[in-house]
Design a protein that fits this description.
79 residues, 3 helices
Length: 79
């Protein structure tokens, strides 16, 4: 049986809203990934500039040493 036109329009609106939400989620995930990559690069650069000294790298980044250790561990860059 054919759907009444108002039901078809309702479904179209729902599908458009779902697509809009999916697009926003994808853009948000992409932005988060870019920020993560940038943070990893900053961590590695600070470590390089400090000759591998984590205390000095943390100072360069303006964060505590334990924060640096936690970030390195979270990104799999520890040791």
């Amino acid at each position: 049986t054919a759907l009444p036109i108002y039901r078809v329009e309702e479904r179209i609106r729902e599908q458009k809203e779902n697509l809009r939400c999916e697009k926003e989620q994808a853009e948000s995930a992409d932005l988060m990934l870019k920020k993560e990559i940038e943070e990893k690069e900053r961590l590695l650069l600070a470590l390089k500039q400090s000759g591998g000294c984590k205390r000095d790298a943390a100072k360069l980044l303006g964060i505590g040493k334990s924060t640096l250790y936690n970030k390195l561990k979270a990104y799999g860059l520890g040791k």
